[in-house]
TrEMBL record:
Its main location: endoplasmic reticulum. It is found in: Endoplasmic reticulum membrane. This is Dolichyldiphosphatase. One of its GO terms (molecular function) is dolichyldiphosphatase activity. Residues 17-135 form the Phosphatidic acid phosphatase type 2/haloperoxidase domain.
Length: 194
């Protein structure tokens, strides 16, 4: 997952993506601290496990962190055409998908005997609380400073960008790429005929 996040940051270079990765790191750090405080063993001890502590489940916590953050991001940040049936359908399907995936991760940890139900439920609650909290921090506290951050020379050099004011980044990038392709193809036609 870490490789995927870094790849996403490398290609997106967006402060929201970077903020999400920071939130993931904080969530994982909190989980590690809690495991070493609670020190509750797993239902089945395996010889090859890194740690024998299972409370709270880090997989469950991270899955529900992702689900909570994604749900809030879709509901509060992505809005293009609110009256569109298609937009409502893809939002509902996205929200249901992340909830189902988080629930499947939670169930799989119990099914494989890596965690008890109590461990995955505590992980889920903690993940939701941290996901909601981190979204609030990013959306309410950090986002107002994003324009200042991206105007700094080091962030300009790294081509870090802020897409906070764009209501639907997917639509924005799609229409801009389509317009740019049309412009470039018109420029290429006269060059090919010479």
């Amino acid at each position: 997952m870490l490789v995927g996040c870094f790849t996403l940051i490398l290609f997106r270079r967006d402060l929201h993506t970077i903020s999400f990765l920071v939130g993931n790191g904080l969530c994982e750090g909190i989980n590690l601290i809690l495991k070493n405080i609670v020190k509750e063993s797993r239902p089945m001890v395996r010889a090859y496990q890194y740690t024998d502590y299972g409370m709270p489940s880090s997989h469950s916590q991270m899955a529900w962190f992702f689900a909570a953050y994604t749900i809030l991001f879709v509901l509060f940040r992505l809005h293009h055409n609110r009256d569109s049936v298609f937009e409502m359908l893809w939002k509902v399907s996205t929200l249901l998908s992340v909830v189902v995936m988080a629930a499947l991760v939670m169930y799989s940890r119990v099914y494989l005997l890596y965690h008890s139900w109590a461990q995955v439920l505590v992980g889920a609650v903690l993940g939701v609380v941290l996901g909601v909290s981190w979204f609030a921090v990013v959306h309410l506290l950090l986002s107002p400073f994003f324009p200042i951050v991206v105007s700094m020379s080091v962030f300009e050099l790294l081509m870090i960008r802020d897409t906070s004011l764009i209501p639907n980044i997917l639509w924005f990038e799609y229409t801009n790429a389509r317009t740019e392709n049309r412009t470039r193809s018109r420029k290429l036609v006269p060059m090919k005929s010479q």
